[in-house]
Every structure is written in structure tokens, then in C-alpha cells.
């Protein structure tokens, strides 16, 4: 019989890998290679100060944005940009980001609306219209951050002391949730998230469902939307401690699925933070339909963590999901600590 892979053992495995030289990714090196590949004109579009309010201007709909896009880059610059993105995520997180961008091709075909343009005249559905912004100067000594954002993607990173210390807010979205036509027919980028969410719901007894389901109507979107600072939502749902052994296993698979989108070094620290806050303090809550095909929503919530998943739009075939660190989105907690120490010096 194989030994159980507990949350603590997963952490230990990540630490071992780090000592083996596999972790962490060389994000700082990739950022500087990317910046050094840019012309002064493109750099001017890309660079912002760390204190610029643009850093908190999160959005996930197709609107005009700040930052250089793939339209601005030659092939060398595109590769450098994607190398930075790959280094900042796990392979799984990077795969999801690439497949979400490709869904713009699907939307362009199925919507068949050549008049749907952005203000610059480009098509609204555009897999190249994803923006890179770097905040501050990439350095081991000073904090800095960067963002990759476009339709259905908002990936925000903060680095201090040469490592990623914040990777939230993290937003992934898919439209269509399940592709019904075109050469991409059958693709479902966020399939596992949906499967595990329903699996956990369907494992509940009738008595547990009274605690888990807080409304029969799912919200139209994730509740936190694009807020810079997430207010603590009402603590609802069933606590991890009140789950059966099998339910706890599914719960942890779902939680790990989200954490495993991150670069390994950050993921290890994020796990440790969640564990210290108490796994027993995490809750699972559901709203809406108990079956796919109609609007549904779930969330995992704890003292420092909020995960939301919503599938209500386009006849429940349009997914929005987000991870928020309730104490350290945009690296605010880590940056505060850094500046206090600098001030003392």
C-alpha cells in the first residue's frame, strides 16, 4: 500500500526538490533578458514604478490596457516574454495560460463579428492582445513586480530578495468553458476544477448539503470581481474538519490543483502559509445548480485564502476563477515588512 501524500509531506517534497537545484525558477534572470531585448520605445510602454497605481488595475475583460503586447514584439522578444511567463508559473499554469489565449481564436470564429474592434482598430478577440507590465527594476536587492494580463487572464507577481513572494491575485477564465465547435472542439481548459468541485459537492450527505449550499442561485460572476483589497466574505460552508476521510481527499486535490498553477518555490511557501493558518479552518461553499449545464459557483475560504469559481454566463459555459491571498495580494504584506526593515536601517 502506498503511503499517503499529506499536505506536510507535499511541502517536504517541494523543499527537497529546491535543495536538488530544481527550484526556484530564475524569474529575475528571465525578466532582465526580456527587458534587455526591448527597444527604448517598447520599454517605455512596459516599465512602471512599483508605486504606480496601474499595478492594482486588475481586469479580465477585453478592454484597452497599459503595457506592451505581442503585437509590439519581434520573435526574439516574444520568446523572452514567454520565457518570463513560463518561469513565473508551473508548467501546468503556463499551459492553462496559453490555452486560454488560444480561446480568442475560437471566439473570433463562433462570434463571426468583424465589426467588433478595439479602439486601436484591432479585433476584440485577439490572442496577441495580452499585455506585459514590469513595476520597478528587476533586482535581488529591491522589490519589484510584473503583470501579464488580457481577456480572461490576470497574473500578478511581486518579488523581494530575488524570489517571488506574491503571485496573487490570479485570475483564469474560459469562454467557451467547453468548446463545442471549430478545430478546438472538446477542449475544456479548466476541466479538473469543475470535476473536483462537483465531485466534492456530490459526496455530501443531505445533512451536509444544508451547510454547504448557501443559495440556489449562483452569483453572476466571482463576488470579489477586480477589487484591489478583498473584504472578508461571510464565513459560510462546511469546514474541512467536518468532512469525511474521502471528502477531505477530494478537498485537498482541489486545493492542490489551484496551488500547483504556481512556480514551485512560491507554491511551497503558499502551502506553508495555508497550513499555518489551519487546514481545519478552510471551508467549502456552493451556490446554484448541482449539475453542469446550469449556473453554479463554489469557493474555498479561510483566514488568508479565498478561491472562487463561477460558471453562469453563456448558459453556464463561461468560467471565471480567482485565487486571492487575503493578507498579501500584490505583495502588500511582504512589501510592508520590507519597507519597515529598510526604514529601521
Mean of pLDDT: 91
Biggest sheet overview: 13 strands, mixed
The coarse silhouette is globular
The number of helical elements comes to 11
Total individual domains: 1
Low-confidence stretches: 1-6, 8-25
Measured by DSSP, the beta-strand proportion falls in 15-25%
Concise synopsis of the structure shown:
The chain has 345 residues and is an alpha+beta fold.
Structure description:
With about 350 residues, the chain is an alpha+beta fold. It has one domain. Helix content is about 40%, strand content about 20%. It contains 11 helices and 13 strands. It has helices at about 5-20, 25-35, 40-45, 75-90, 90-110, 190-200, 205-210, 245-260, 265-275, 315, 330-345; strands spanning about 45-50, 70, 130-135, 145-150, 155-160, 165, 170-175, 215, 240, 285-290, 295-300, 305-310, 320-325. Strands 1, 2, 3, 4, 5, 6, 7, 8, 9, 10, 11, 12 and 13 form a 13-stranded mixed sheet that branches. Helix 6 (about 190-200) packs antiparallel against helix 8. The radius of gyration is 20 Å and the shape is globular. The N and C termini lie far apart (about 55 Å). Mean pLDDT is about 90; it is low at about 1-5 and about 10-25. InterPro entries: DUF3500. It comes from Arenibacter troitsensis. This is DUF3500 domain-containing protein.
Amino acid at each position: 500500500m502506498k503511503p499517503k501524500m499529506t499536505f506536510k509531506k507535499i511541502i517536504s517534497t517541494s523543499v527537497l526538490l529546491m535543495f536538488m537545484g530544481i527550484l526556484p525558477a530564475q524569474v529575475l534572470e528571465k525578466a532582465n533578458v526580456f527587458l534587455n531585448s526591448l527597444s527604448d520605445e517598447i520599454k517605455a510602454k512596459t516599465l512602471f514604478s512599483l508605486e504606480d497605481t496601474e499595478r492594482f488595475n486588475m481586469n479580465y475583460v477585453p478592454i484597452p490596457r497599459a503595457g506592451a503586447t505581442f503585437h509590439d514584439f519581434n520573435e526574439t522578444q516574444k520568446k523572452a516574454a514567454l520565457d518570463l511567463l513560463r518561469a513565473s508559473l508551473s508548467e501546468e499554469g503556463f499551459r492553462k495560460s496559453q490555452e486560454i489565449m488560444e480561446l480568442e481564436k475560437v471566439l473570433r470564429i463562433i462570434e463571426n463579428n468583424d465589426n467588433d474592434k478595439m479602439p486601436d482598430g484591432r479585433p476584440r478577440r485577439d490572442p496577441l492582445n495580452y499585455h506585459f507590465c514590469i513595476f520597478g527594476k528587476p533586482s535581488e536587492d529591491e522589490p519589484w513586480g510584473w503583470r501579464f494580463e488580457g481577456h480572461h487572464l490576470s497574473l500578478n507577481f511581486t518579488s523581494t530578495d530575488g524570489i517571488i513572494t506574491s503571485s496573487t491575485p490570479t485570475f483564469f477564465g474560459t469562454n467557451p468553458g467547453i468548446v463545442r465547435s471549430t478545430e478546438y472542439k472538446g477542449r475544456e481548459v479548466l476541466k479538473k476544477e469543475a470535476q473536483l468541485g462537483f465531485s466534492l459537492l456530490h459526496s455530501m450527505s443531505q445533512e451536509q448539503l444544508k451547510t454547504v449550499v448557501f443559495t440556489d442561485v449562483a452569483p453572476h460572476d466571482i463576488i470579489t470581481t477586480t477589487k484591489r483589497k478583498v473584504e472578508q466574505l461571510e464565513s459560510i460552508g462546511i469546514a474541512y474538519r467536518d468532512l469525511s476521510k474521502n471528502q477531505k481527499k477530494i478537498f485537498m486535490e482541489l486545493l492542490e490543483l489551484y496551488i500547483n498553477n504556481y512556480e514551485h518555490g512560491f507554491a511551497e511557501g503558499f502551502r506553508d502559509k495555508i497550513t499555518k493558518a489551519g487546514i481545519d479552518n478552510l471551508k467549502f461553499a456552493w451556490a446554484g445548480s448541482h449539475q453542469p449545464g446550469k449556473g453554479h459557483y463554489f469557493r474555498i475560504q479561510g483566514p488568508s485564502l479565498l478561491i472562487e469559481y463561477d460558471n453562469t454566463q453563456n448558459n453556464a459555459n463561461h468560467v471565471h476563477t480567482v485565487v486571492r491571498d487575503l493578507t498579501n495580494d500584490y505583495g502588500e504584506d511582504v512589501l510592508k515588512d520590507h519597507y519597515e526593515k529598510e526604514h529601521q536601517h
